[in-house]
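Run log, item B.
One chain of 99 residues. Sequence copied directly from the ordering sheet:
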Amino acid sequence: MSRIQDRKDYPISMRLPEADVAMIDRAAALKGRSRTDFVRDAAVRAAEEAVMEQQLIRMTEDGFTDFMALMAAPVEVEPELVEVLRRPAPWEAGYRAKD
């Protein structure tokens, strides 16, 4: 008697404009991936992001008090970070790379 195995993969079919498929193929090739792998990873990443945006963060009352105290505390200035943020971006006029 043959046994039917449970499917582990589920096909997803979609219709896309030619330009979208061309862009997906180009990006997949740049990443050295197949179209299927590229689209699957992008879809899973987008799904995870959507779920995480809706995720409720729970903490104890003491944990919340500690969190609020940290948020209300004065910031400590990091001189290195200030220096980096004051530099013009490479695409802005006047940018000079350091030697």
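Observations after the first pass:
- The radius of gyration is 24 Å.
- The chain has four helices and no strands.
Flagged for discussion on Thursday.
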